[in-house]
Amino acid sequence: MASSLTKDSVRPDTPGSEKTFFGHPRGLATLFMTEMWERFSYYGMRALLPLYLVAPGGLHLNAGTATAIYSVYVSLVYLLALPGGWVADRFLGPRKTVAVAGLIIMLGHLCLALPAAASFFVGLGLVAIGSGLLKANISTMVGHLYKGPEDPRRDGGFTLFYIGINMGAFVAPFAIGTVGENVNWHLGFAMAALGMALGLAQYLLGSRHLSEQSSVVPTPLTAQEKAATLRKGLIWLAVAVVFYGLVGGTGHFTLNWALIPLTVIGLIVPILVIGRMLRDKDLEPAEKSKVRAYIWFFAAAAVFWMIYDQGGSTLSLFASSSAKNTILGWGFPVSWYQSVNPVMVMTLAPVFAWLWLWLNRRGKEPSTIVKFASGLILIGASFFVFLAPLSIAEGGHKAAAMWLAAIYFVQTVGELTLSPVGLSVTTKMAPRKYASQMMGVWFLAVTAGDSITALLSNPAVGGVNLDKTGFVALEAVLAVIAGVAVWMFRNKVNKLMGDVH
């Protein structure tokens, strides 16, 4: 955070330092704009997605199925960050992988823009694949711009990059959401494709400013490994084609033949990945102890993201059917609610950064565990707030927009308490052998949380109405209990964490 933004501070041996971006390597501007446009396309489409799924002019599905589709989609984005990192590490390198990712995302949005259900679901799949490839690698390339962790501008560079993420997320619902809801759904999706096209174009034009390290394939596959990987991939592809060909050919295929397996995968993969680490004989006892401690954080984060990501599904669908969506008599599209979180993040993130430093100087900064517990309690509190507009709606009235804004505010405060801490503790507790993969494990907490939501909301499995008072209260209580449990067992977790504080 305390980086210098003056041109005089630039070191001539830093990649891209001949031209600066607010005192940072010129390549940061390229990555900033790429991420901003990618987030513009992603969050704009995501703001429309649940609304389009239930709209009479859209796919006209029930709310439970729409929530399940939305949740599976979000879980896939984070699940695919793991293979996305693997592709860069073993095949293409980060720079080429991000270029391929941008192209796949753009094609995905173009498929969404076509007025056909089949192309729509193909588009969702492509956007998820592209997002997973990009998410895993673009932050890595930001790090490549600096001369290691000791570069004093590094934290400031990531801060600027984070602003780009939230700028794209903030503007997208106003542009894409308004066009999609008020003009034409598919034109809105086409705008998302245009945004990614602009991001990809400037990325290709500005890639010469990136570090040469971003073009390196860290651990390339041998010829034998490539052949084995290709063979396994083709076998699994053939199995899927034959299986779904039989299901479809016999007339039994429904959407749940795709949704439920993907949901189960989202729950099983995190367990398998963490279990593999615990069984790895190469890890030292201290490293395994840290992984056991990390399970507490992972489980808590899964509960957090299960509730938090309903801000784009359950809350959005509630706003569409049961909220006034007006301010001082002026109406606005439902998708605009998705801009509340990013603008609050941009406003409050500097405040939290200052607060932690201020408390640290006085020896009063809360521990990682206390911050984590606070984040869980806050996300639970947000759903306790949700009970008020639910009660208003059940009484036959429309809930005021400010109730929803209040929910998003509490969730944002919880996010800023838990998410940055989660990223930090993930890097600190990662075994040396899994230093890079551990960040993918953190993303898997999002996958697990959204997969639970998908199972609960899917009419063929849980069939739970997630916007009913009883279940919202149950989720709120669960989050608070999880937060209290993390706090109560803080001494045990601290012991498992060893030298990490």
UniProtKB/TrEMBL annotation:
Residues 1-21 are annotated as: Disordered. Pfam families: PTR2 (PF00854). The chain crosses the membrane at residues 43-61, 67-86, 98-118, 124-146, 158-179, 185-205, 234-253, 259-279, 291-308, 336-357, 369-388, 400-418, 439-457, 469-489. InterPro entries: Dipep/tripep_permease, MFS_trans_sf, MFS_Transporters, POT_fam, PTR2_symporter_CS. It is found in: Cell membrane; Membrane. Its main location: membrane. The keyword Transport applies. Signal peptide: none annotated. The keyword Signal does not apply. Keywords: Cell membrane, Membrane, Transmembrane, Transmembrane helix, Transport. SUPFAM superfamilies: MFS general substrate transporter. PROSITE patterns: PTR2_1, PTR2_2. It is a multi-pass membrane protein. Belongs to the major facilitator superfamily. Proton-dependent oligopeptide transporter (POT/PTR) (TC 2.A.17) family. This is MFS transporter.
